[in-house]
Amino acid sequence: MTSPTTGATGTTPTGADDTPPGTAPTGTTAHAARPAATAERVRADYAALKARGLALDLTRGKPSPAQLDLSTGLLDIGAADLGPAGAGADHRNYGGLAGLPELRAIFAEVLRVPVEQLLAIGNSSLALMHDTLVHAVLFGVPGSARPWGAERTAVLCPVPGYDRHFALCEKFGLEMIPVPMRDDGPDMDEVERLAADDPGVRAIWCVPTYSNPTGAVYGEETARRLAALPAAAPDFRILWDDAYAVHHLTDEHEAHEAHRTHEAHEAHEAHDQPTRPDGATTPAPAPAPAPAPAPDILALCAEHGHPDRAFVYGSTSKITFAGAGVAFLGSSPANVEWLTGHLARRTIGPDKLNQLRHARFLRDAAGLRAHMARHRALLRPRFDLVERVLREQLAGLDGATWSRPRGGYFVSLDVPDGCARRTVELAAEAGIRLTPAGATFPYGRDPRDRNIRIAPTYPALDELETAMEGLAVCVLLAALERS
Amino acid sequence: MTSPTTGATGTTPTGADDTPPGTAPTGTTAHAARPAATAERVRADYAALKARGLALDLTRGKPSPAQLDLSTGLLDIGAADLGPAGAGADHRNYGGLAGLPELRAIFAEVLRVPVEQLLAIGNSSLALMHDTLVHAVLFGVPGSARPWGAERTAVLCPVPGYDRHFALCEKFGLEMIPVPMRDDGPDMDEVERLAADDPGVRAIWCVPTYSNPTGAVYGEETARRLAALPAAAPDFRILWDDAYAVHHLTDEHEAHEAHRTHEAHEAHEAHDQPTRPDGATTPAPAPAPAPAPAPDILALCAEHGHPDRAFVYGSTSKITFAGAGVAFLGSSPANVEWLTGHLARRTIGPDKLNQLRHARFLRDAAGLRAHMARHRALLRPRFDLVERVLREQLAGLDGATWSRPRGGYFVSLDVPDGCARRTVELAAEAGIRLTPAGATFPYGRDPRDRNIRIAPTYPALDELETAMEGLAVCVLLAALERS
To answer: Which ranges of A198-240 would DSSP assign to H, the alpha helix?
Structure first.
């Protein structure tokens, strides 16, 4: 089904050859490789590329202005709705540390956390992860014998992974242990081996839905094994960053069908909803039914005797406004009590007015899904374009593989071994900014120097096409230099 | 000028008798003491009070609903202003860690911090103090040999002071050393003695303008001595929480005249500005000139060879919405770089849209002052009422003194020694909630058990009157029981 060495596939650091046929939810069907470009042609292409004097950026997973426009209606929810008369309570004053119940109810469903165990605080889930680690390092979590900072603490990092997760570990002096990423989550044999043997291994980073950057979707079986994991550390934690819980690019959900017990298919009707200027109060007429959610990690952990094992994170950063959204943290009652005890000394409460704006704008989980269908209509052409250019330009290149994600914000491109750093360098010289090579690995060390993260959401389509074609030229030249 | 044992005065933990005549900015003129209430009358009054079955709350410094209504216009600043077209830039996306320059410019003037050294982040200055301490404890500040958490660290705490400052110290295991509070700041002889002798003394809490709870206003001389302090610790820090920088209750500024080089008097015209429903875009027609600001602590520190000594904090919590405002932190370039380096791993940026709402609503420092004049019109009657009831009910009670603040959110009441805890208990039994006795001291230990913090801003005037009269009865009964 996949053509591991000559086309699109799920990326795994141990080589696409390791992927058993039929298990790669991000794979495409095989296609004919076009003839390899000649060396002269590649050099000429690169010279021409440089001569264009581009200034393009594929570095960060940011929503485009058109995506932000989808939430314009949120900005027009005013005093009539937000004041005490319209809100039914006074949300303007101090208090309400856990966040606004109406908004938490919407995301409780999406993130699979009981609403009373879900906090809505601040505008950044990264900040909530940071603060979880701050308090773990300084004080330990429930079940810790000592603060994490007082003894050796290591964190399992599925790779390639999210650079900001790794930056947090580095900051707090937490050792990072890479674990190969598969298409349905990390290599669980390896996770089990590492966690069972080493009491210093206290956590694992997970992006369960459309993992950053590979697009991998954690299956129920992966989640069950994480929940059941016989960790040597009694205070082992799963840092479950469900950043892309509702960020689907497809309505087919083959990935879910293969790996998850899904509830319903997303309706076709929602796919091409036009962008409505009054999106705030008028969800799409026929909202899509709930797509397959991530595994219910809190329930699985409780079921397997580890009720306090998982912290779940999410945010509206890529739903409403990346800078002005709302972040969420959900966990067991004991963990929530632990964290709110600490947070109560930090703040008297979150911005409940912005939470109320969000609750009024999104209305409910169905409204949220309808809103995400509008994002998908904007994002899908970008991901299709990336796939098309990579296929057209790199299908003939031995060792080049890439993910074809069904959701999320990234495409993970593996270039031939030893070529990633040089590719990024060549692209920078041609005015195309890429995430630094190695960024998707702890300490910036990609052992095969091959992974590049592509963030196609922000640029306009024509710019994206130019950038992707330029990137392909750089990959070909880097491979040529190395051959 | 003051009548230390029988009337209103500045409160100092070493006794009002220590206050030299003429230096008490919070004092009132002496007045005739009314005859002491008879024991029978006091007991009967308390029985009657209990019989009323009240449920009143004087615990926290919260703005009243009418104060929050002053900022209704902020909620109606919508997409036309906040979107890229109206804003002149796209503030909806990630980024801009330092906060919105337009808003920082307004508060740079008020907080006396160069705009490029002032950050606008989150909705809570307490959170910024918390995070400063987190990073000091884990990593040390510029100039630290080791993290504050890795060696004995003590913090000087002027008393009575702010319970949430003390709670942060307790949380991070920072020893607290009380220092007597005077009417122009802490007892600087004591501060100098403690900091010069002990390299473990690394910080001091300061609320320079209308200190919580005494209303003390730090004078230029106090600030100069703090800046020049020959601290044994090379990484000594002044935690300068200017929470009430623009929260004036008077337009006379005797306090400033005595202790500060002030720029101008506040104009009478601004005093009784009516509340405007369109307050957002229409500042009062004749905005008050700038009142005397707090000493320029950053400049003073630099002048005295300690450029990295001070962190300045502020927020709009008691200017716009207590839950949905904006917090500020200003410091030296080195400190700002240190902190933003840490914060950059925590978040990709603050809620710039809410900052833009604030900038549009307040417009400039003059608009901010006009807005604060409207707060003053609502607050002044409450503080006048507290003063009147205390004078009428407690002027005859030996050992009862209280502050008459010219700004801020609190009145500090000293009851006869050994009577504070009992007073709070009696009040609770009568349905009047007060801040716990001792809360204004580190570890909750008021050595003379006499200080009670009164927060008069939130209740309606008639409720406040009932609560204050009830409180006075409780003070008299507690004193009677002890006599």
So the answer is: 220-228
> What residues of chain A, 58 to 77, have a C-beta less than 8 Å from chain B?
60, 62-63, 65, 68, 71-73, 75-76
- Characterize the bridge pairing of strands A56-57 and A432-433: parallel
Residues in chain A: 483
DSSP A345-410: HH-S---HHHHHHHHHHH-SHHHHHHHHHHHHHHHHHHHHHHHHHHHHHHTTSTT-EE---SBSS-
What is the model's pLDDT at position B294? 87
Q: Decide if A75 contacts A69 (C-beta within 8 A).
A: no
Tens-place pLDDT, residues B338-393? 999 999 999 999 999 999 999 999 999 999 999 999 999 999 999 999 999 999 99
Of B73, B93, B126, the CB nearest to A348: B126
Beta-carbon-side half-sphere exposure of residue B40 (alpha carbons within 13 Å): 0
A 10 A CB-CB count for B88 gives: 8
**pLDDT score of B297 more than 80:** yes
Q: Which residue has 């319903």 as its token pair?
A: A264
**pLDDT the model gives residue B37:** 61
Amino acid at A215: G
* Cβ-defined contact of B92 to A123 (cutoff 8 Å): no
Q: Which residue of A has its CA nearest to B150?
A: A150
CA nearest neighbour of A287 among A269, A265, A262: A269
Helix (H) or strand (E) holding B108: helix B101-111
Is A74 buried (19+), middle (13-18) or exposed (0-12) by CB count in 10 A?
buried
CB atoms A93 and B62 under 8 Å: yes
Q: How many residues does chain B have?
A: 483
Q: Is A206:A191 a contact under the CB 8 Å cutoff? A: no
Q: What is the pTM of this model?
A: 0.88
> Helix, strand or coil for residue A125?
helix
pLDDT value of residue A483: 85
pLDDT band at A293 (very low <50, low <70, confident <90, very high): confident
Quote the Cα angle for B170-B171-B172, to 5°: 95
Residue at A147: amino acid letter: P
- Beta strand B185-186 with B175-182 is antiparallel
Alpha-carbon gap, residue B446 to A202, rounded angstroms: 42
Beta bridge partners of A330: A118, A312
Distance between CA atoms of residues A400 and A394, nearest Å: 7
Q: CB–CB of A217/A184 below 8 Å?
A: yes
pLDDT at residue A21 is higher than 80: no
What is the rounded distance in angstroms from the CA atom of residue B3 to the CA atom of residue B480? 22
Using CB atoms within 10 Å of the CB of residue A38, give its burial: 0 to 12 exposed, 13 to 18 middle, 19+ buried.
exposed
Residue from B412, B443, B377, B64 nearest B211 by CA: B412
How far is A249 from A386, CA to CA, in rounded Å? 13
Could you read off the pLDDT of A444-456 as tens digits, one per residue? 999 999 999 999 9
d(CA A297, CA A228): 11
For the beta carbon of residue A197, count every other beta carbon within 10 angstroms: 11
Collapsing DSSP to helix, strand or coil, B327 comes out as: strand
Residue of B nearest to A163 (CA): B345
Q: Specify which residues A56 forms β-bridges with.
A: A432
CB-CB contact of A215 with A412 (8 Å): yes
The Cα angle at residue A64 between residues A62 and A68, in degrees rounded to 5? 100
Which residue, chain included where needed, has tokens 């299709």? Answer: A384
Residue to test with chain A: of B121, B172, B329, B351, most A Cβ within 10 A: B351
Lowest mean pLDDT: which of A34-38, A88-92, B62-66, B293-297?
A: A34-38
Q: Which residues of A touch B167 (CB under 8 A)?
A: 345
pLDDT at A13 over 60: no
Q: Rounded CA gap, B244 and B408, in Å?
A: 5
What token pair was written down for B287? Answer: 């905005």
Query: In this predicted complex, what is the ipTM?
Result: 0.88
